[in-house]
Write a structure and sequence with these properties.
It contains nine helices and no strands. It is mainly α. It folds into two domains: 88 residues; 73 residues, Winged helix-like DNA-binding domain superfamily/Winged helix DNA-binding domain (Arc Repressor Mutant, subunit A). Helix 3 packs across helix 5, helix 5 crosses helix 6 and helix 6 crosses helix 9. It is elongated, with a radius of gyration of 28 Å.
Length: 209
């Protein structure tokens, strides 16, 4: 009888210890990653909070290295990366797979951000830079003009903004834009919008001066 009681007690202790161990142990990295990304796929807010705590600063540091220390571009690319993560998240089985996917998204976002900035500079070179530099020679040109351009574009009428973006951001030719109208009409309209943008940018810069 005593032997059976001791055996039962030992068996109960082993089972209890195992249960407590499972309850309080840290999940294996692969298991945690699979559970985390699965919950993110289900739009679980707590999962996203954990993800941001784990990866926000890490992704930012990665992008700062990729931009050779340009934190402004890195942060813009990070915002685009986070948007793409929310849109395209899927369960993965390991942290290595997850980080590899995140760096691909981050690099792609950085390429797109740099492309966007080049196109913004092309617009400024094409339309504004010479006049604005002459009127404000002491200004930190790019740092001042790009935000002013971004705000001024947002304030355009929808059709005007779409035409500028199609021409300068999507690199469509005047011929491609001249659907249902003449190329001359498109050129004339682009000229009017450029003058409107120039005035809007100058007014914004004067307010900020």
């Amino acid at each position: 009888m005593l032997k059976r009681e001791l055996t039962d007690a030992l068996s109960w202790r082993i089972k209890t210890t195992a249960a407590l161990s499972r309850a309080f142990s840290v999940p294996a990295p692969g298991t945690f990653t699979a559970e985390l990304t699965g919950a993110m796929k289900r739009k679980d807010e707590e999962a996203y909070r954990q993800f941001f705590e784990l990866y926000f600063e890490r992704l930012l540091r990665y992008l700062i290295v990729c931009t050779h220390g340009d934190e402004d571009i890195a942060r813009e690319a990070l915002q685009l990366t986070l948007i793409r993560i929310v849109r395209h998240i899927k369960p993965v089985q390991s942290e290595e797979q997850l980080w590899s996917w995140l760096t691909v998204l981050a690099h792609s976002a950085l390429v797109d951000e740099k492309r966007k900035r080049r196109r913004q500079n092309e617009i400024l070179d094409r339309i504004f830079r010479r006049e604005l530099t002459e009127q404000a020679p002491s200004m930190e040109t790019e740092a001042s003009l790009i935000p002013a351009l971004t705000y001024s574009l947002a304030e355009l009428e929808t059709e005007e903004r779409q035409l500028i973006e199609a021409k300068y951001f999507n690199a469509l030719s005047v011929r491609q834009l001249a659907i249902g109208t003449s190329e001359k009409a498109i050129e004339s309209r682009l000229g009017r919008i450029r003058r409107k943008l120039k005035l809007a940018i100058l007014n914004r810069l004067k307010r900020e001066d």
